[in-house]
Structures are given as C-alpha cells and as structure tokens.
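thread from #wetlab-drylab

HS: before we spend reagent money on co-crystallization trials with manganese (II) ion, can we at least see a predicted complex? here's what I'd submit
DV: go for it
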Amino acid sequence: MKIVDEVRNADTIAISGHIRPDGDCVGSVLGLYLYLRKTLPEAEIDVYLEKPADIFNCISHIEEIKSEINLNKIYDVFIALDCSDDRLGDVRPLFENARRTINIDHHISNPGCGDVRIIEPKRSSTAELLYDLMDADQVDEEVAAALYIGIIHDTGVLRYSNTSPRTLQIVAELIKFGFDFSSIIEKTFYEKTYVQTQIMGRAILESVRFMHDRCIVSMVSRRMMEFYQVTPKDLDGIVNQLQAVKGVECAIFMYETGTLEYKVSMRSNGRVDVASVAMKFGGGGHVRAAGCTMNGTYHDNINNLSIEIAEQLDIK
Ligand code: AMP
Ligand code: MN
Ligand code: MN
C-alpha cells in the first residue's frame, strides 16, 4: 500500500502528530508534508503541531506548521501520525470532523483510530514506516532529512533494540541524499544547552534507586524548572541517562506539570514492559519506552508504579 493512493482525490489534507512532539513526531509530520506537497501539488495541505523544540528548526519548512486552528474547517483527509486520536491535542476536533481519517503509528498501545489504520509496532519509528509507504523515487533531500531525524530520535541513534535490518537499509537510502547527517545527530540529539546539562546533572544527583537497585527514579519540580529557567522540552534525555546506570532494569523520570500532576517517562531494558505499566495509568508507548500523566503526590505515584513494576520483576 502507498500513502498517495489513499489521498489522491483529496483537495484538502491535514497532517498532525502528538502533543509534546518528539523527533519522530516532528520528522514524520514534516517528512510526509513535504512528500505530499511534491507528489500532489494541486492539493491544499496544512500541517498542525504543538511548537517543536528549537533543535528541530533545521527541518525544512518547519515554519509552515500552523498554530492557529480553524475548528470549522472540514478536511477531505486528516492524517494522524505517531499517536492515536487521543493525543492529538487541540486539533482533535479537526480529525473527528474530517471526511476521511488515516492513522499511521508504531505504538503497541495504539489500537488505531479512523478509517485507515496502519499500525506496525515492530517499526522503529513512524518515520521508518512512512518511508515504506512512499515511492522511493519521489523522496528528495528535504523529505529524507526529516525522516532521518525521526528514525534517529526513536532509535537513540540506531542503538535501541527497535533498530532492524530494514531500519538500517532505509537509513542507508536516506543518507545517499547527501545531507549532513553527522551534524543532525550532534545538533538535535547530543548537544545540550548549559542549563539543560545542569538540570540533567541535578536530576541524576537526586535520583534514588529502589527495589534492590533494579529501579531508579528522579523528579524535577516546577520550582526547579523556574530556578534553571527551563521548560519541559529541556528535560529530554534525562530518563535515558537514568536507564544507562549499570544494573538498572527500569528507570522512571517525572516532572511536575501542575498541582499534584506529573508527566511520567519510563524506560526499561526489556524485562519490564513499561507500555503495559503506562497503560494502567492511562498512558502508553512501547515495551522499553513509555509514558503517562499521573495525579497525586510524587511519592504516591512512585508507590503506584512500583506495585506494577514489582509484579513484573517478580519481587514480593
Ligand atoms: P516519553 O514519555 O516522552 O518518554 O515517551 C516514551 C514513549 O511513550 C514515546 O514513544 C511516546 O510517544 C509514548 N508515550 C508517552 N506518553 C504517552 C501517553 N500518555 N500515551 C501514549 N503513549 C505515550
Ligand atoms: Mn513520538
Ligand atoms: Mn515514534
């Protein structure tokens, strides 16, 4: 199946992804936008997304993301990427009102939504899946660089176990276009501002191991974010750093989003299925990387997560 066949007759198309967009979400949304603009020059295509982190400004045409939403507009096709409709945020009504809806995702926790559902949990990233839904000869350098960013971010620069031979074949095809992939990795994945590094250091310093040191947890409060003058986008990567501690099987990182409300990120080495833990609390994700929003005190949240994790690790 090819994506153009699903949208060929559409005059108006909207594309969007999940709230708090990560690299895969931004790369997939922009990659598909640039691809469809090229293959269907007559169609009017709008792209909606919560403002991405500044590191993604290197993606071509990122400034064309629409921030104003006309809720009365009815699109012929709405394509939701890297999430189910429940994480579309403010554009969800546009998805619901569209004449035809398409959902393309790789989250195991997503049963799929809309008229056409392409959900492939074995895919490293939505960007990888999208590449196989495109005609390779219509992919150009801008599309390639956007999809590359998606794949790089969801695979931790091709090192997580979701990286497959197909992922690497696609990456090989993409880098043939000659964009500066090394700089993309450095600037979007590894480089941190000074305050981002400081708050990461603080979170690591204040982390606590529990369950016989097989789990680790840390938290950043709103006060800490104010002190370092950072926003949630600056906290990316902290949970991965916690998971890198030798002996740790499950890492939990939380930041305060409101009164008694926390955004929770979890990572695992595969022993704990964190997607199923997150789903118990209304979230989702993948076996080794998942998230949810929890209400309650920090300690209550740890306790509630611990019960689920202990069961999986067979700790009484
Ligand atoms: P994060 O919480 O940003 O570390 O996300 C880890 C993985 O879980 C990513 O693939 C997210 O897209 C996914 N994820 C995070 N929060 C949710 C949620 N509330 N519902 C479904 N998937 C989520
Ligand atoms: Mn994502
Ligand atoms: Mn993804």
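DV: The chain is about 35% helix and 20% strand.
HS: ok that's useful, forwarding to the group
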